[in-house]
Design goal:
The protein is an alpha/beta fold. It is built from ten helices and eight strands.
Length: about 280
């Protein structure tokens, strides 16, 4: 769609090498991609492949396993700070404009702490120095995201990554765009069936990462909400081709040829773009 660049993540369990995957992205019509990051991951190769196939290198997704520890005074927090700064430097060195970062990871939660703000402050200061933006993503633990956006929201280096699927399950349907849409710089678009448990208890298994229009999301309303926030950036999918935690909803994707699956993902993204008014 001519109004919006369409991107997709590389971590959908596609079963291809990076050169095969990037070439396929280009052939299908995707404009760009994001990829996960870990210490030692060859970001330079991704940069070279992006240039080879004329793809926009949208963002790096930082690890999130120690984001709960970031709010504590512990060795793991120091390790996490170091990793996030290394990820930012990989962004800067390879022309990647955004690092995606979780504010928290874990279903058992407390309250934000001063030490957590100090830890994240170190990462944000490095982002400001390098000229890379950090997009904090809505996950479980909205109070941690709220604290970061309140404390650091005025920083030019801080933005918001809106995850449509996380809002439906981890955030109990709270309109996260209404809260942080003015800082919106990127999206993770996917679908699910909401919270399965009758008592409203969230589960990681609810985060299915279905293709748009395969779950219960109202994509016409989502497009209107993006319009409401005057968002004109990329429409970025974050999909999952394989089943998760003994759930079977993604099984139909497992049976699909990867070319057919990614082509269908691209078509669904075009349908979302067509719903936009701006």
């Amino acid at each position: 769609m001519w109004k919006h660049k369409i991107c997709i993540g590389t971590g959908g369990w596609y079963g291809l090498t990076k050169p095969e995957l990037f070439e396929l992205f280009k052939e299908i019509g995707f404009d760009g991609f994001f990829t996960g990051w870990r210490p030692g991951y060859n970001i330079k190769e991704c940069r070279e492949l992006a240039d080879r196939y004329g793809l926009f290198f949208h963002s790096l997704h930082a690890p999130f396993g120690y984001t709960a520890e970031m709010w504590q005074r512990c060795d793991e927090a120091g390790e996490a700070v170091g990793e996030y700064i290394a990820c930012l430097r990989d962004c800067a060195e390879n022309g990647v404009p955004i690092m995606i970062l979780h504010a928290y990871y874990g279903l058992e939660q407390g309250e934000p702490t001063e030490v957590g703000l100090e830890n994240y402050g170190k990462v944000i200061a490095e982002a400001e120095r390098l000229g890379v933006k950090i997009a904090f993503e809505n996950t479980e633990g909205e109070q941690y995201l709220a604290a970061l956006m309140e404390y650091f929201g005025d920083s030019e280096a801080v933005g918001f990554c809106w995850d449509s699927g996380h809002e439906m399950c981890f955030n109990h349907g709270v309109d996260m765009l209404a809260l942080y849409g003015k800082k919106l710089i990127c999206t993770h678009l996917h679908d699910n069936l909401g919270i399965k448990s009758y008592d409203g208890e969230i589960s990681y298994a609810d985060d299915l990462h279905l293709l748009p229009f395969d779950g219960v999301a109202d994509w016409k309303e989502i497009a209107a909400r993006l319009d409401r926030e005057s968002y004109t950036g990329e429409l970025t999918l974050e999909e999952r081709k394989v089943c998760k935690n003994r759930r079977l909803e993604n099984r139909v994707y497992e049976k699909m040829d990867v070319v057919d699956y990614l082509t269908e993902a691209y078509k669904r993204a075009c349908r979302i773009a067509a719903l936009r008014k701006i």
